[in-house]
């Protein structure tokens, strides 16, 4: 856990002393994706992580299962997950082009098996809700499930989501490391030990970070890359560095 820094801190800029538009803490699949897209948008970026890729990214199964994982009461989340999953093919294609690596996107659909009659009844009930939300899910007989996937054992039934796919998170991570590097980003192997915060304008806002060596880093004073006037980086004119938390 990263705690807010105590005392007065001056932000020193990037590892090489240069000023960055964006500082990302954590080089997992999310941090690196943000870093890569920000670099593509014309920002300068530094990512801090002592062990890139050792977090949940390493453990994840890589299911892109917006339908299969949609549950009661989660209609809005499910819609967002479905929209996000639909962006994966283009994201994977961009990333493969940028890195030269295969990220293991397999558009194979996903099957959920039901082991007994209760499982079938419960899955059917959930599938009705998923249908109401406009999701693509189809009930299969046990024989149809085995035809689709011969290793399926003695089951009572199954449910098929043709639009739920999978990706290899470890390959995605390797590709992101290359893409970030190729785009000019820096992944610095240091742990962030505390955050710089600013209370100007209301509640505390994170404005930078201090790494394990005591070096503090914060984004530059403002940024608006050419042609991307809608992008604004911290700190804005409402916040100042340095500040005491
Ligand atoms: C067992 C398991 C299975 C999963 N299966 C799926 C799945 O099938 N489909 C799916 O979509 N999602 C799945 N997930 C969720 C998915 O793995 C996460 O949502 C995703 O990996 C989060 O990425 P992240 O980059 O935010 O975090 P992480 O991958 O955890 O990356 C965080 C990074 O931050 C770094 N870090 C931590 N502290 C500091 C610090 N103080 N300073 C600097 N760096 C620091 C770590 O070293 C790490 O590299 C699964 C998760 C688990 C655990």
UniProtKB/TrEMBL annotation:
<keyword id="KW-0560">Oxidoreductase</keyword>
<protein>
    <recommendedName>
        <fullName>FAD dependent oxidoreductase domain-containing protein</fullName>
    </recommendedName>
</protein>
<dbReference type="InterPro" id="IPR006076">
    <property type="entry name" value="FAD-dep_OxRdtase"/>
</dbReference>
<dbReference type="Pfam" id="PF01266">
    <property type="entry name" value="DAO"/>
</dbReference>
<feature type="domain" description="FAD dependent oxidoreductase">
    <location>
        <begin position="21"/>
        <end position="210"/>
    </location>
</feature>
<feature type="compositionally biased region" description="Polar residues">
    <location>
        <begin position="236"/>
        <end position="245"/>
    </location>
</feature>
<dbReference type="InterPro" id="IPR036188">
    <property type="entry name" value="FAD/NAD-bd_sf"/>
</dbReference>
<feature type="compositionally biased region" description="Low complexity">
    <location>
        <begin position="216"/>
        <end position="228"/>
    </location>
</feature>
<feature type="region of interest" description="Disordered">
    <location>
        <begin position="198"/>
        <end position="245"/>
    </location>
</feature>
């Amino acid at each position: 856990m990263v705690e807010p820094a105590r005392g007065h801190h001056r932000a020193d800029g990037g590892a090489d002393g240069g000023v960055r538009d964006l500082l990302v803490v954590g080089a997992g699949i999310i941090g690196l994706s943000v870093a890569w897209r920000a670099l593509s948008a014309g920002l300068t970026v530094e990512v801090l992580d002592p062990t890139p890729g050792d977090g949940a990214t390493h453990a994840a199964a890589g299911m892109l299962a917006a339908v299969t994982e949609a549950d009661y009461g989660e209609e809005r989340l499910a819609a967002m997950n479905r929209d996000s999953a639909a962006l994966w093919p283009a994201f994977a294609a961009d990333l493969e082009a940028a890195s030269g690596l295969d990220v293991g996107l397999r558009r194979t659909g996903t099957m959920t098996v039901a082991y007994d009659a209760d499982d079938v009844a419960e899955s059917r009930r959930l599938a009705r809700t998923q249908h109401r939300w406009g999701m693509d899910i189809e009930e299969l007989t046990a024989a149809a499930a085995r035809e689709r996937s011969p290793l399926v054992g003695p089951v009572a039934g199954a449910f098929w989501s043709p639009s739920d796919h999978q990706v290899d998170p470890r390959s995605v991570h390797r590709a992101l490391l290359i893409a970030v590097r190729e785009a000019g980003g820096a992944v610095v192997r240091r742990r962030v030990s505390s955050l710089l915060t600013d209370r100007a304008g209301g509640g505390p806002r994170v404005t930078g970070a201090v790494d394990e060596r005591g070096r503090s880093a914060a984004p530059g004073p403002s940024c608006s890359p050419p042609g991307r006037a809608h992008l604004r980086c911290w700190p804005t004119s409402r916040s100042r560095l340095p500040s005491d938390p």
